[in-house]
Amino acid sequence: MGAAVEPDLKSTATTPTPHSFPSTLDIETAESQPSDCDVNLKIPKVFPCENIKDMAGNVARIGIRPYNSTNPTSMALVPVETPNEDGTTTVKRHLPGQPRVRLDDQNPGSHWKTLTLYLNENHLTTKLDGMFKYMKYVFVQTPSFLHIMSLHHQYAHDREIKIDEHPCLHLVWYYERIYVKPIPAYFYCAAFWEYIANAHLDVYRACLGFMRSYYYLIQYEVDFALACEKMLIPKKSNGQFPTYEEWCDFIEPFTKIHDIQVPKRYHYGELRLSRLNMAAAFFKRKLAFFHIYPQWGSFLTHSLGPLLTIFAICSVVLNSMQVSLQALDTDLPKDHAWPTWKAVSVWFPIVVTILIAVVILLAFSGVCFMAVVDLYSGIRTRRRKRRGDATAGKKTHGVIW
Length: 401
Hints:
about 10% strand
């Protein structure tokens, strides 16, 4: 790799092992896996940074070393000397791309708690995983990681890409916005992947699912250009973004990851925030899963819209009824025009009320129809996945081909 590695550091050049899972899996079995990852699943080791060129600086900046003499399998991340062009060496004693998380080569494991808290907070989706049992049929989401549109097609749906580091907001969309979590720089380091594969299995599973989602977000070179523009992809050690060809080599190992190897959240692709908010309100007794409008004024302005619409409809109907009743009680001259005007005054409000009722009925029927379609789509996707259909739940482009 072009960088000096201390003799007592475990080598980071590990060849990925073959995937041991069958191509067909039972979606019900995969979804029944606990969200806290307490099952010791046999997960294939993936160290994708070996497939990317000119990553020597990033790879050599950290290594792994046993830190407990009584437990040889215990591991800690440690900084590694990186050679400079002038012949000197530099040691960056922090997690690549995150100077707030310090590493210590003299006392390996001394930052275990800090590093563990950081990894859990930035990669685990435990709270979101626990909500899917409520959303399975009531608030249906398509149970497929293929249900992801590429970045350029997000713009075709008039969605704005919002950057957010919270793992539970990754690929959550709300009307004209979708949240995307950027890829951390330390994902380029083979030592990091080997470390979490041995020391933090739950984090390793979450990172596998997260990176698998990026394979579908970035499908074309235009998607890659947008990802670089939005800083979704980290730069290499030389300060430059990888080429599109290098990126494809980097992301390829994640295409063979199965649902049973990742947390529940990554069994799914894009998620609707409106349905997550409803699930949180009904089952978690929370106001929302995520508050887009943190101030009460903005929240009430947005939430009162439907209530004001209902109030306006009721007002129109009541006024129509009042007009009709008043017209019936009115004695008008027997002139030839007045009886006609009275009949119009009586029947026109009734027609308006009937039209409003028809519109409400059609709207309600449309909502019920879409709910049934979503429910059927979710059940059908699960059945197709049981039969081994690799395309089950794939996100369509929303047009008729």
